[in-house]
């Protein structure tokens, strides 16, 4: 039986797990593909030489992370006519056009299942199973750290800081969790999903993202009271009149939404299309062995001919001012006329109120207002005016509400 040489760039958490899994599964893969995969070389900062590994490999797996030299090595591998498997979301979200262009020109595979949602096979389903479906919207919980933190806040009533400390102690958050909690990691993953779902060249700089750092126990208590779930949601969707919106922000979900019950460090992606209504894929988020398993799945796919080089993505108009329902949290002096003044400002901007809950806080009151879907710019204009009212005790806070349910 012939062998299939795999060059491995990076031997950290995922790279080491990949090497072990490859050895364990080599016989089974040989039985499926007719070729036995074996490592041709490993590159780290202290070991191996890229040119030498490239010359001896049929395929290269990039698990170094970061932009350089990962970008250089991936491009040079593709230009040499050899397929690449990568788990590097930052690289794909910032240099996607160059990398997919190089793969297309060379007519070789560039596979990246592990870059999005742990073992959730969202890429494969979008690329292969749903290749003929017209996708309208993709929603994702694509960051396990933030989902773990929000789930802990809901389950135990802990503050954001306490839940983050727990996540770090249990290994669900890194020592520097910035890119997870500020939404950037999820934003990078949404550019990859948007590219596949809509054939659109979306870069990280075109995604609006917000994180969970400002979520409070009061928001969570409100969610629990109304049986809503608060999640960090990534969205890529077609917008009426053309264009795409790609964004990441915390959002309340009703219980009938498939992502509402995705808890802990799990990831999930919901794909909506008229042909299928919706399908949801969920599973464990990141982790060395889970990610290695998704990487190995890509290697096996690349070993099965013929490769399908992805078509170059088209430029797209990105729409940022989209409609959403909102939850608005205000702390005000408890005196007559306050609610009327707020209602007037909302009304003047065309914001229509769905519900108001008022709660006494001694001489002050807490108002929790949910408004019907409205263009974000109009809502924010109203919030800015409300923010100037002299009876406001703290700056207004708001969170988007996703109203869809599938029941
Ligand atoms: N960890 C996860 O759960 C997970 C999940 C999904 C996706 N990913 C992605 O998978 C990739 C790898 O993540 P990881 O957690 O395995 O990273 P890691 O533990 O930090 O390992 C990185 C490896 O790459 C090597 N490396 C880094 N820069 C290099 C350079 N300039 N030249 C040569 N070697 C270099 C390192 O070498 P040294 O050993 O010499 O330092 C190390 O072996 C990243 O793109 C990450 O985003 C990770």
Automatic annotation (TrEMBL):
Similarity field: Belongs to the homoserine dehydrogenase family.
UniProt cross-references to InterPro entries, sorted A to Z: ACT-like_dom_sf, ACT_dom, Asp/hSer_DH_NAD-bd, HDH, HDH_cat, HDH_CS, NAD(P)-bd_dom_sf
Lineage: Bacteria, Bacillati, Actinomycetota, Thermoleophilia, Solirubrobacterales
Binding, NADP(+): 9-16
The protein, known as: Homoserine dehydrogenase
Binding site for L-homoserine: 174
Catalytic class of the enzyme: oxidoreductase
A single MF term (Gene Ontology): NADP binding
SUPFAM superfamilies per record: ACT-like, Glyceraldehyde-3-phosphate dehydrogenase-like, C-terminal domain, NAD(P)-binding Rossmann-fold domains
Transmembrane segments: none
Superkingdom, taxonomy of origin: Bacteria
Gene3D superfamilies: 3.30.70.260, Dihydrodipicolinate Reductase, domain 2, NAD(P)-binding Rossmann-like Domain
PROSITE patterns associated with the record: ACT, HOMOSER_DHGENASE
Biological processes per GO annotation: methionine biosynthetic process; threonine biosynthetic process
Catalytic activity: L-homoserine + NADP(+) = L-aspartate 4-semialdehyde + NADPH + H(+); L-homoserine + NAD(+) = L-aspartate 4-semialdehyde + NADH + H(+)
Function text: Catalyzes the conversion of L-aspartate-beta-semialdehyde (L-Asa) to L-homoserine (L-Hse), the third step in the biosynthesis of threonine and methionine from aspartate.
List of catalytic residues: 189
EC number: 1.1.1.3
Pathway linked to the protein: Amino-acid biosynthesis; L-methionine biosynthesis via de novo pathway; L-homoserine from L-aspartate: step 3/3; Amino-acid biosynthesis; L-threonine biosynthesis; L-threonine from L-aspartate: step 3/5
ACT domain boundaries: 327-399
Residues that coordinate or bind NADPH: 89
Cofactor(s) the protein needs: a metal cation
Keywords assigned: Amino-acid biosynthesis, Methionine biosynthesis, NADP, Oxidoreductase, Sodium, Threonine biosynthesis
